[in-house]
Amino acid sequence: MLTELLTALGITAKHLVSKSITVRYPEERREIFPRVRWRHELMRHENGLERCIGCSLCEAACPAHCIRVVAEENTDEHRFSPGERYAKEYEINMIRCIFCGMCQEACPVEAIVLREEFELSDYEKESFIYTKERLLVTPQA
Amino acid sequence: MVTLKIDEKQITTTAGMTIIEAAKSIGIEIPHFCYHPKLSLSGSCRMCLVEIEGMPKLVTSCTTPVSDNMVVYTKSDKVKKAQEDILALLLINHPLDCPICDKGGECPLQDYTYKYGPGKSEFYDKKWHFEKPVNLSPLIVLDRERCILCTRCVRFQDEVAVQPELIVVEKGYGAYIETTKEEGFTSNFSGNTIELCPVGALTSRQYRFKARPWGIKRVPSVCPHCGCGCNIHIDVRENKMVRLLARENRDVDNGWLCDRGRFGYLFTSSPDRLKTPMIRKDNELVPCTWDEAISKAAGIINKYKEMHSIDSTAGLASPQLTNEELYIFQKFMREVVGTNSIDHSLERYLMIEPPGKTICNGLRRFSFSDIDEADVIVLIGGDPSIDLPILDLRIKKGVNRGAKLYIAGTDEIELCRFAGRHIKAFESYPDLMDTIMRETGEKNKYLVLLNRMMHEEDVETICACMKTYLSGKISMGGWISLGLMLPEANSQGAQDMGVTPFYLPGYKDTGEGSLKGYGVPDKVKCLFLADMEVPDIAGRRRDIDHLISYTPFLNDTARLADVVFPAAVFSETDGTYTNSERRVQRLFKAATPPGEARSLWYLLMSIANALGADWAYGSSQDIMTEISKVNHLYRFITYETIGQGGSYADGTADGTRYYS
What we know:
The structure holds 2 protein chains of 2 kinds. Helices cover 21% and strands 17% of the residues of chain A.
C-alpha cells in the first residue's frame, strides 16, 4: 500500500516541476499550419479579375447552409470575372459556419478559400454576416 | 397485346408501343436525348440503345416497337459500353460550362454522365467554338457550343407550334441551330423549347442566373393570363417568382405554355407594388394604417347606404380574381352595401349558362379534348392564337388529325392557314350554318366555338340550326359541343359567381327593381374597383363622390381614389379559377404578398365586419364550402376533390357535360 501511495505522489511531483503545455494566449500563439481552415476569402486572378463565377456550388455544398449567392451577368463594360457570370452578392453567415471547408472543395475555380485568420470576435450578431466586400481580397498592384 | 421480357421482367403491353415506353411503364429508365413522347421520332442521339437477344447490333429503343417474346436487356455489358461511348462522344465538344450554365442541377446530360458515363475523359484536343450567347429573341438565349443537336426544338416548332422557325444549318461536324426568320425566334410558343432542350443550349433570358434548381421552392398553380387555365409550376426563391414552368395537364395544356403565360410574371416582384393602404388627405394620397383605411372605407359605404339610393353605389371586379374573391365581392356588394350594380367587364359579354333558357339544351359542354375528337370545328369570331393560345395548338393538332376547320366572321388570323374554309362575312347565322352543314353533311362530331361579343339571339339561332340538322346523327354517337371563348383567366368564374347585374351566383335571377346594365352605371356616386382599371374614369371623376380601389399598383385609376388598398396577386393567394371549359382548378399560394397587401376576400371581410356583419372565413376553403352550397353548378366542388387536375363545375358529380 505504501508503494502505491509513493508512486502516485511521485507522478504528482513530476507534473509539479515539469513545464506545462498551456499556450498562454494572447501573449503566445500556436503555430499556424498550412491547411488550417478559418476565415474565408474570395480570391482574384493574377490580372485582378475576381475568380468567383457565381455558380453557387459552395452554397449547395455547405452543410450548414450559411452561404448565399446571387449571380449576375458580366458585360464588356462592367466585367468582374472572366466569362459570362459573376457573383453580384456573396454572403457567408460566420456564426453558422462550421469551417468544414466543403465550399473550398466544391469551388471549381478556387475562388472561395479558408485562410488563417481566426480572431473574428465582434459585438453585434448582424456583423457576422460577411458580405462580398469583406470577403473579397484586394487586387495586388 | 404482346408479351416480352425487359431485364428479366415480364411485361404484357399493347402492340405498337416502343421499347422505351414499355420500359418506362415498368419503371426502367432508359437514357435518351432526342426522344420525346410528344414529338416525332428522330433516333439520332443513339443514347437509348438496348440489346435485343438475337439481333447482331444494338437498336434504338425509342424507334423499335415491341414484339411477342422479345428479350430486351437495358443493362448488359454491351449496352453499358455503348452508353459510355455515346456520352464520351457528346462530351468531346460540350463546353465545361456547368458552373455557369442555368441547366446545371436539372440537366439530363449531367445526370446521365453521372449514372452511365465514363468516369474519366480521354479527350485532349481543342473543343469547337461558336460565338455565344446568341439572343434568338428577347426571351430565348441560344448557346451553340452546348447544343447536342437532338433537334427537339426544331421538331417542336415544326410539329406542335407549326411555326417552323428553327433549323439545323450545315451538316456533320459544323452543324448548328439557326432561326429561319430574320426577326429572330418570334413564335408565341418559343418558351417551350427551353423546357424541351436537354442541355443548357436554349435558356430563358428572364431566368438567366437568377437561381439554382436546388434552391427553389416549387408551388403548383394556374396561369392568370387567359381563359385556358394552363397548369403551371411557380418557382420561388426568397419570396420572389424566378420562373414559371409547365405542369402537365393532358386535358388542358398538354404540357405546353404560351410565352405570355411563361414569361409574364415579372410584375409580381416589381418594386412599384403597393405595400400599404393609402388614404386621401388634403387632396393627396398618403400611406396609412390598415385600420385607418378600413374605417374610412366603411364610413364611406355607410354614408351611401343611408343617403342615396342603392343604385348609386357600384362595383367592378377583375376577371383575374379567384372564384372565392369574386364570390365574396358580390356577397359584400349585395348584402353589405346593398347594391346590385356589380360587373366584371366594362363591355357587354355573352352568357350561355343561365338555365331556363333553352338555347343550349341538349348540347354537349365544351371540353378542350373535344378539339381532339371533333370532325368539324367552327370558330365564330375571336382569335384563339391571341385570346387562348393553347387552343391554337390543340386546333392545329386536330386539323392535322383530320378535322375540318371553319373560320367565320373575322379577318385573317393565324389559324386561317389551317382552315378548310375562311368565311369572312356571311349574311346571317342560319346561312352560315347552312353552308357548313351542306359541306360536311356526312360528319357527326361538331364543335362550335363562340366569341363573347355575340348576342344571345344569335346563339339561339345557331343552336336551333345545329339541332335540326343533326337530330338524327346525335343518336349514332355524334355530338355537338358548344363553347364560349372567354379570354380572361376567370371570366367564366366571374359569371358563375354572379359578378354581373343580371344574375346571382349560379345564375339565379336577381329579381325586379335592380339596375341592369354592363360596366359602370351612368349615375354612380360611389364606386368600388377591385383590381379594375377604368380608362375614362378621369373624365367622370367629378361626378363620382367616392372611389375605393383595390389594386397591386398605383395606376392612373387608383391615383384618383379616396382609399387605396394594396392587392395580392394570383401567386400570393389560395383560390380557384374556372377556365373556358368550366374546369375549376386550384391556385396555391407561392409567396407572401408585400407589406400589408392581402387577398380581396380578407379585405372585404374586414370591411364587412367593421360594418356590423360577422363573417368568419378562415381561408379560401371556407369560402368554397359556402359557394358549393349556394351555387348549384359548384355543388360537387371541394378542395379535396379538385386535386391537381381540376374538376368540372357543371352541377354534376361525374361531369356528364351536357347543358340543361
